[in-house]
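Weekly modeling sync, notes
Attendees: S.R. (lead), two postdocs, one rotation student

Agenda item 3: backlog of single-chain predictions. S.R. asked that every request posted to the team notebook include the full sequence so nobody has to chase files. The rotation student volunteered to paste the first one in as an example of the format we agreed on. Action items at the bottom.

Example entry:
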Amino acid sequence: MAIKNHLRLLFTAGSLLATTFASPVSRFEDDDDDDTPLPVVIWHGLGDAYNADGMRQVADLAESVNPGTLVYPIRIEDAGNRDRYDSFVGNVTEQLAKVCVDIAAHPILSTAPAIDAVGFSQGGQFLRGYVERCNNPPVRSLITFGSQHNGITRFRDCETNDWICRFAMAVLGTNPWSPTVQGKLVPAQYFRDPEQYEKYLEHSNFLADINNERSIKNETYKKNIAKLENFVMYMFDEDTTVVPKETSWFEDVNGTEITPLRARKLYSEDWLGLRELDRKGGLKFRTAPGDHMQLSDELLTEAFGDFFGPLNRHKGRSDPRPASHVGDEEFDMGSGGRSEGRPASRGGEVESDMGNDL
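Predicted structure, as returned to the notebook:
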C-alpha cells in the first residue's frame, strides 16, 4: 500500500507501540457518554506483513479519524519477514487460534467492551472466522475490503522474483484437496470450485467450516455474526486479482451464472446469521473503484468515520451507497500482481521497504 507524500502521519510508530503494550489498566468507562474510541484490529492480506509501511499508514489514518484509537495490527509472528511467509504457508485454523489467544490476552484489548475490525483481502475472512469462533472481546463492526468470503476459483499470479509466491502457487496447482496442501498452504484453505463442490465440503480445512456449509451447522457461528452491529463488505469493481470478484459480497459464481447472497440457501436458511443481521440493518454492501486493494484515503476515512469510534456514538450509516470514491491521495494495496495489502510505487507515493513483492 502506498500513499502520497503529503499524507501526514498523525502519530508515530513509537507512540503506537507504547499504547499497544501499555499496562493492563482499562481505558474504558462504564458510561454511555464515554468518548473513548473502541480499539481497532487490522488483519493484512496475502504477501503482506503486519509491520509494513502500508499497514502503519492505515493505522495512522484510523487514529486520525478517531483520535485516541488503539490500533493493533494482527501478526502470526513478530518478525515481519516471517509474518509475510505465514500469509502463504500455514494452517489457518491454527493461526486463527493463536490470534484469538493473543487478542484475549492483550492488556488493553481484553479490557475493551468491544473492538472494531478491518480485514484486507484474505484478512477479511480470517477476521470473520475470529468473530465466529472466538469473539473475545466481541467485534462491534467488521469491515472487509476485497475479501474472499465465498472463496476463490483460481489462484493468483506471482511476480517472477517472488519465489515464496511461485512455490506456493505451483504446489496449489497439483492437488488443492490433499491433506498436506489443505493443512499447509493458506490460499488452498479458501479455494472453492463449484465443479468440485463435494470435494470442497469434504476436504476444506477452513472456508467450508466458517461458511457453515456442511450438513451439521455450528449455531455459535450464526449467533456471533448476528450479534455484529455492522458487517460492511467492500467489493472492488475492477478486481482482477480475486476470481471471482463477487466473492467479496458472498455471491456464488458458477461459470456465467451469478447468484446474489440474498438468493442463496446460505441466506434464506440463515446458516451464518447474515439474514438476521441484514433485517436489523447491519449488513452493508459497498463498492470501491479500481483493481484489488487500490484504496483512496478518502474511502478509508469515510469507512472509519462511519463505523468506528466510541461505543455509543453511532451505529453507522444504513445505506450501502455503492458509489465511487476517487480522492487525490491513494493507497495501492497490491493490485496488478503485487501482494494483497502491499504498497505499490506510483509517482510521488511512499514505497514499502519490503521490495517488489508479488
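Discussion: group reviewed the output briefly. The longest strand covers residues 139-145.
Action items: rotation student to repeat for the remaining queue; S.R. to check formatting next week.
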